[in-house]
Amino acid sequence: MIIKKSERKEFKNSPVCIAYEYGHNDKDINLAVIELSGRYPAKGRVTNKICKEVAFVFEGKGKVGIDGKESLLKEGDSVLIQPNQKFFWEGKMKLAMVCHPAFNPEQHVECD
């Protein structure tokens, strides 16, 4: 199945975090491109109760905080976030984000 750029769905997670989902109608896996221009969430952290999330930085730089440990990121870096890990993103980056099983907003919650 091919999803064209013109067919992707836009979701504004916050004023600084826009997600473009490429919906393949597959409950096991999905892909989104994330455009980040600040901190998400604005304060605290978020967690995904079910999905593993793999992010690839294909443009820009910033940092990720996972379970209290912060790491700098730049183009070409990849991050694996396990279910229930608490995390945040900060910077000016474009990320390719793959979730397994497929992302569902109900399993993604703000904490702290």
How would you sum up this structure, described in words?
The protein has a single domain (6-111), classed as Jelly Rolls, CATH 2.60.120.10. 0% of the residues lie in helices and 62% in strands. It has no helices and nine strands. The protein has strands at 9-14, 17-22, 30-40, 45-48, 52-66, 69-74, 78-81, 87-100, 108-111. The strands form two sheets. Strands 1, 2, 3, 5, 6, 7 and 8 form a seven-stranded antiparallel sheet that branches. A hairpin with a 2-residue loop joins strand 5 and strand 6.
Q: Class in CATH?
A: Mainly Beta
Rg (C-alpha, Å) = 13 Å
* Topology order in helix (H) and strand (E) letters: EEEEEEEEE
Count of helical stretches: 0
Major sheet size, sense and barrel closure: 7 strands, antiparallel
The CATH homologous superfamily? Jelly Rolls
Strand fraction equals: over 45%
Q: Provide the CATH architecture.
A: Sandwich
Kindly state the percentage of residues in helix: under 10%
Question: Structurally, how many domains make up the residues?
Answer: 1
> Separation of termini?
39 Å
Q: Can you give keywords for this protein?
A:
0% helix; 112 residues; two-stranded antiparallel ribbon; mainly beta; globular
